[in-house]
Amino acid sequence: MEAPIVSSYIVMAGALAVLLNSAAVVVYVERRVAAFIQNRVGPNRVGPFGLFQPLADVIKLIFKEDVTPIYGNRTLHTLAPMFPVITALITVAVIPFGDGLFITNINVGVLFILAVTSLGVYGVTMAGWASNSKYSLLGGLRAAAQMLSYELPLGMAIASVVLFAASLSMVDIVNSQLYWWHVFVNPIGAIIFIIAAFAEANRTPFDLVEAEQELVGGFHTEYSSMKFGMFFLAEYMHVVIGSMLITTFFFGGYHLPFAGYYAHLLPEAGTWLKAMLDIAVFLGKTGFFVFLFIWVRWTIPRFKYTQLMSLGWSKLLPLSILNFAVIAFILMLIHG
Amino acid sequence: MFEQYLPIIVLIGIAVTLALVLMLISRLIGPHRPNAPKLRPYESGMDPVGDAKERYSVSFYMVAMEFIVFDLEIVFIYPWAVRYQELGFGTFWAVMVFLSILTLGLFYTLKKESKSFEMTKTK
Questions:
Q1: Does A20 map to a domain?
Q2: Which residues of chain B have a CB within 8 Å of the CB of A168?
Q3: What angle do CA B18, B19, B23 make, to 5 degrees?
Q4: Model confidence at A2, in pLDDT bands (50, 70, 90)?
Q5: Does A48 fall in a domain?
Q6: Which domains does chain B have, with CATH numbers?
Q7: Which of A134, A193, A278, A315 is the most buried (most CB within 10 A)?
Q8: Domain-embedded: residue A18
Q9: Cβ–Cβ of B85/A336 closer than 8 Å?
Q10: How many Cβ atoms sit within 10 Å of the Cβ of residue B116?
Q11: What is the ipTM of this complex?
Q12: What does pTM read for this prediction?
């Protein structure tokens, strides 16, 4: 047991470094891609191609005044920004980045993911409640209702993945996609999961939580300085985590498409070359989905609140239950 | 068994420390010049009217209640989804009956509550 534990802490250091830096990179990429889509220039002053813009933003945020509204609840107001950051950081614990490259492989990995993502609701709701501002409160309530509603289709979509893997361990789920990615055998589940992941990350078209035109900043209206920065950091880390989960559950994790059929052509398992290839494949797919998140944000307008709730409850949830039942039936006929 | 969970505990420790450090940085470095208008809740420059914590739509509570029911359903599904191949068709039909009862319940609540998503003040 000695060796895997040592390597798991090395992986942890790497994963944390990637995750924290990716937030800065995604902020930069989002602004550049948004500018590209809207035919603007985007940030291009700080450093070459504006690459140091996120760094400048963070320094600016640190030197700003930290305001706590007097009518609010001080303790909850201070605690709230910590929740999204912590939940985003601990989700990586069970995501496998390569063959044997994971922080830990617990046999209830899927339940861990579901438990930790539900905790994210608390931060947003607490922020809205503790600020004692109408905009914040409405934003927080909407966030709670939205994230609860979309967690159900998310959970059902993952349940349909579990049918194929017959295990709750993330490593087994990735390895069950060696030949066929789940997106090919379970496309409806994949679409439902992607939509629900967008809603869980509070991204457009589901960003009613912070709809600028009606709620100013939503739940973080009353936040300033690095407390606001933490919500901002957490939002982008959740985008990266969401992309990692989409990759892991439906797009084969670190496996190339149909890798099982030409496994003899790839480097041998356990070598450095294979590890590098795995990480490159995983990060490549994650990068694509991060780009998809950004692309959708600057292309599709926001839903109305009623449309959001009826999409979640009366369309996605029945569809995901039906998808689960049909897949279970087909798999029973094949294997049973 | 416990060794597998040790990295998670370490990671939670790191995450909490990092969040605390980020929280403290701006409190220590940033300026601190509070005044009354700055500390009042922001209402687009107008003087705040009343308290924010008044009554709000009951449909938010309904959503939370329905969530608990269906979340339990999903948690019941997971153990079966892991072992379904060994349990055979008898259990399969039992789970399908369970699922269909809950789906009926879902359609019942949707029919009954569909108006509540409209978030109207009077009903």
A1: no
A2: 78, 82
A3: 115
A4: very low
A5: no
A6: 2-122 (1.20.58)
A7: A193
A8: no
A9: yes
A10: 19
A11: 0.84
A12: 0.89
